[in-house]
UniProtKB/TrEMBL annotation:
Residues 399-432 form a coiled coil. This is TolC family protein. Transmembrane segments: none annotated. Keywords: Coiled coil, Signal. Residues 1-23 form the signal peptide. It comes from the Bacteria. PANTHER family: BLR4935 PROTEIN (PTHR30203:SF24), OUTER MEMBRANE CATION EFFLUX PROTEIN (PTHR30203).
Length: 437
């Protein structure tokens, strides 16, 4: 993959870093520790498949990002870009534009007249720079160094996006698992109450079957929630190549309210534009077929046997001209590449602006939804308590109680999930404005 191809893939994904989601500024301790191992401390998994993770209190989010970046495959491309820049620097610093050649020549008349005539010569050819060509090579080297450095920062932000998403996907999955376990416990408590009342004859056996069905449905949801947790943990481990988690990865929302010119993605593609501009100038000054050459040589000749050898030296210059006609395709190709990168820059700027707007809107909606979700949760919990009392008093049947219980559990689940989503949205807002963890 070319350097442009790599930066294009990296930067074209920038808008994904600011996709909106929803949810409060502080989370309860259980949510802050999404890595609390399920299946540990006597807690049995419904499906015996465990992808363990562990909390490392000494690990911080920036440290985790650095460790992940060191193992990220694209680091190899960054290293290659630096090597390319060094190669251009070596060429630009050279006093000669190309390789040096030594030509040796010998001729005599032994196969013809055999008069003892002979001639021997040696020529050394130096390839020299065209006017302005060395400056163009040094400019390409400089811009290559700049581009490689900016590209490294852009890859770092790309890895930060993947890391933020992996952490908060895991947090959401853990939150859903906790709620699924709570729901299963509540349905189990209700099932035991119904069993006792059926044994006492207060309720028909049909109510017991209904309670058992409801309990099994919650058990199925718990198994699905366990699977989602394991999937999210495996995705995290695959990205980071570790099972360690930071104890706290909450982020403060950035005060930036617009895409800055030094946004890592913009800085990277601007550096690439500058590098391609330098490449266009290099193409204009470079002859793809011939280069000027200076020839320095010596010759020894004798006309016949017994004659004195004649020693001479020679200096010559080869100056190509008219090369612009033949180099036009290379210049046009360099300009075409430049146009592609500039178009990509325009697309990227629009994507970043759109992503930031969506991230801002998501946070606004999220905070409003969280307020409503908390109110619904309080109302649902009060309503459920009232209906439980009515059921125990025989005023309502089991089906009515299960309907209210389902709405109450959904309200509690939604309120907790909105809290987690808000923290994820804050992290993705920071991603949108180009702030590193």
């Amino acid at each position: 993959m070319t350097a442009y191809g790599h930066i294009k893939v990296c930067l074209a994904l920038a808008w994904l870093a600011v996709l909106p989601c929803r949810a409060d500024d502080r989370l309860p301790p259980a949510v802050l520790n999404p890595s609390a191992p399920i299946g540990a401390e006597g807690q049995k998994l419904l499906v015996e498949h465990l992808d363990p993770v562990e909390v490392d209190p000494a690990l911080t989010l920036p440290q985790l990002l650095e460790e992940t970046l060191q193992k990220y495959p694209d680091r190899l491309i960054n290293e290659a870009l630096m090597q390319q820049a060094e190669a251009w620097q070596t060429r630009g610093d050279s006093w000669l534009a190309g390789s040096t050649a030594l030509a040796l020549d010998y001729a005599d008349d032994r196969m013809a007249n055999d008069n003892g005539s002979r001639e021997a010569s040696a020529n050394l050819e130096f390839t020299v720079w065209l006017w302005g060509q060395r400056d163009a090579a040094q400019q390409v080297a400089y811009e290559s160094h700049q581009s490689a450095g900016k590209q490294s920062v852009a890859v770092r932000l790309e890895v930060a996006k993947l890391l933020r998403e992996a952490l908060w996907d895991m947090a959401l999955a853990e939150n859903r698992l906790q709620q699924a376990q709570i729901n299963l416990d509540i349905s189990g408590q209700l099932l035991r109450k119904v069993e006792r009342r059926v044994e006492l004859g207060d309720l028909p056996r049909a109510d017991l079957l209904l309670a058992e069905s409801e309990h099994l449905q919650h058990k199925t949801l718990l198994a699905q929630a366990e699977a989602e947790v394991m999937h999210s943990r495996k995705s995290y481990a695959s990205l980071t190549q570790t099972t360690r988690l930071p104890a706290n990865y909450l982020e403060q929302q950035s005060t930036l309210q617009a895409i800055q010119p030094d946004h890592p993605f913009l800085a990277a593609i601007n550096a690439l534009v500058a590098k391609q501009h330098a490449s266009v100038e290099w193409a204009k000054t470079t002859d793809s077929v011939n280069q000027p050459k200076v020839i320095v040589g010596a010759k020894s000749a004798r006309e016949q046997r017994g004659a004195d050898d004649m020693q001479s030296a020679n200096v010559g210059v080869v100056i190509p001209f008219g090369h612009s006609t033949y180099d036009a395709p290379e210049i046009a190709a360099a300009n075409l590449e430049l146009s592609h990168i500039m178009a990509q820059r325009e697309h990227l700027a629009r994507q970043l602006e759109k992503g930031l707007h969506e991230a801002e809107h998501a946070l606004e909606v999220n905070r409003a939804e969280l307020v409503i979700a908390r109110q619904l949760k309080d109302i649902a919990e009060q309503h459920l308590k009232m209906m439980q009392t009515s059921f125990e008093a025989g005023e309502i049947n089991l089906l009515d109680l299960l309907k209210v219980q389902a709405r109450s559990l959904e309200a509690v689940r939604n309120a907790k999930e909105q809290e987690v989503k808000l923290q994820r949205n804050i992290a993705l807002y920071n991603q949108a404005v180009g702030v590193m963890p």
